Amino acid sequence: MKLDPSVLARIQFAFTVSFHIMFPTMSIGLASFLAVMEALWLKTKNPLYLQIYKFWLSIFAMGFGIGVVTGIVLSFEFGLGFAHFAEIAGPAIGPMIALEVLTAFFLEAGFLGIMLFGLHRVGPKLHFFATCMVAIGTLLSASWILSANSWMQTPAGIAIHDGRLSVVNWLHVIVNPSWPYRLPHMLTAAYLTASFMVAGVGAWYLLRRKHLDFARRSVALGTAFATVLIAGQVFLGDILYGTMIKFQPSKMQAAEGFWEKESQSPAPYYWFIIPDQKNQQNRFALGMPYLGSIWLTHSLDGRVAGLKNTPRDRQPIMGMVFYAFRTMYGLAIVMFIMGVASLWLRFQGRLFTSRWFLWLLVFMTPSGIIATLAGWYLAETGRQPWVIFGILRTADAVSPVPAQALLSTLIAFVCVYSVFLGAFLIFTVRIIRRGPAEAASYAEASASLKNAFRPHVLDHVTRAVDGEPALRS
Amino acid sequence: MKSMKNFRRAAGATGATILGTCFFFTIIGVFGLQFAIAGLILFVAIAVITYSAFAGDEVNL
Fold it and tell me: What backbone torsions phi and psi does residue A4 show, to the nearest 5 degrees?
């Protein structure tokens, strides 16, 4: 069997980036959630918030670590699998990745240690400052990466001479047309991910009748954040949809499952299709009448543009784009329903006793990660056959590397990442099963950074771990 | 008495479903951007009020 290096390079990058994005999504969301929890603890002095903070801090730390390690791999893969892309896009993409390191990574690296291990060594306010800096670092990181990826979706601020790309306007490169919409969409996705994780774990404890105070507060906070965030996400998603129709029509044509240049009127909204890319038609389609016109054209009889508007050699594969979009959008609808249900149950005073709702929250625990993955599949498969939309085709971007080298590294990545994922899941399940009771609900602080490494402060930590309340210095 | 309670719950749930559907269609922009922004603000306000005003059940359980 002859292996195609371009296919293997794409599979390898798809696998590694899919694995990677799960962890930053968690850590971006959890970092801000932790900052809010610590702020609430400092404001109210309620130890429950500190307990919640400590519980999620360890899960955040593991996710953060795996996210950083798997993110570094991606930079190397530009060279391993996509050398031509790195060569051409380097002048625009390279500085943004370097700026991510200089701003976000340095900020996170500087304060992560204090955040993870400094609660008993520095003052609570300084510790809160460190948590905020780590949270801001994750935002900056997301911002630069989204800027780089959005530039690949909607390139701007460049000129091409003799096959060489040069930047003519850095502001246009960074603030490219899709970035202002994709960044808040991604950040909201990360916050939603954290909200459903927090609510899901709280719901699990309520169903098991364990750690009830912690569980109620987690469900209350998680559902409250999720309800507000999903409304914002639906709004932002619609704005982004309109932007992508303008700048990348082929993606949205594929996402809606229509082939003809104009759909019938009124247009249905397809939930299930069996597309036949070769014959440019659907073998089977199942949808809701009128809903396509209402949702997509905001009228009762509007027609939706199909994929035949895009030349065949510039079309993405409809099935991948369609189902990625349906997965993301379907989960968003379920999240919205959950938000409305949580408001109704809260109003009735049954938020913590409705078992059906608590079970739904448990099942929805990973929903943010799945929706984010689906969103990225939509973004990346919908951009095909381009790696830089309208400028460089993916097939022309791959490295002149033998297929065997790509296959062997792909197998190595699958093996190593399986260990990462297995370790993360095992330790996360252990932390959840152990519960928050192990985390002491008080914090001792030495009040200033200069005291942080003095022996008596470290003694306090030892005693606090042993369960003995430590004295303030 | 129990059937009355069930009826109230079913009626409430139906009302919440209709209201939620209206909000969803408004926020995704079916009625235009201005209505979408207004719908979003109203929905968030309702959520904040509900979560801050109806916190009593946390204590009762």
Answer: -95, 115
Residue from B18, B23, B24, B59 to probe the interface with A (highest A Cβ count within 10 Å): B24
- For residues A394 and A384, is the Cβ–Cβ distance under 8 A? yes
Q: How far is the C-alpha of A19 from the C-alpha of A181, rounded, in Å?
A: 24
pTM: 0.89
A295 interface with B at CB cutoff 8 Å = yes
Contact at 8 Å (CB) between B30 and A298? yes
CB contact under 8 A, B56 and A349: yes
Which pLDDT tens digits describe chain A residue by residue (473 residues)? Answer: 678 888 898 999 999 999 999 999 999 999 999 999 999 999 998 899 999 999 999 999 999 999 988 988 888 888 888 888 888 888 889 899 888 888 888 888 889 999 998 888 888 889 999 999 999 999 999 999 999 999 999 999 999 888 788 899 999 999 999 999 999 999 999 999 999 999 999 999 999 999 999 999 999 999 999 999 999 999 999 999 999 999 999 999 999 999 999 888 899 999 999 999 999 999 999 999 999 999 888 888 889 999 999 999 999 999 999 999 999 999 999 999 999 999 999 988 889 999 999 999 999 999 999 999 999 999 999 999 999 999 999 988 888 888 888 899 999 999 999 999 999 999 999 999 998 865 555 555 545 555 555 555 444 544 444 444 443 43
CB contact under 8 A, A346 and B56: no
Using an 8 Å CB-CB cutoff, list residues of chain B that contact chain A. 9, 12-13, 16-17, 19-20, 23-25, 27-32, 36-37, 40, 43-44, 46-48, 50-51, 54-58, 60-61
The interface pTM score, or ipTM, of the predicted complex is 0.89
Q: Do A231 and B56 touch (CB under 8 A)?
A: no
Give φ, ψ of A389 to 5 degrees: -55, 120
Residues of B in contact with A48 (CB under 8 A): none
Chain A CB contacts of B46 under 8 Å are: 343
Judged on CB neighbours under 10 Å (0-12, 13-18, 19+), A224 is: buried
When scoring B8, B22, B27 by the number of chain A Cβ atoms within 10 A, the one with the most, hence best to mutate, is B27
Q: Give residues with Cβ within 8 angstroms of A182, minimum separation 6.
A: A146, A149, A150, A153, A240, A379
Residues of chain B contacting A334 with CB distance shorter than 8 Å: none
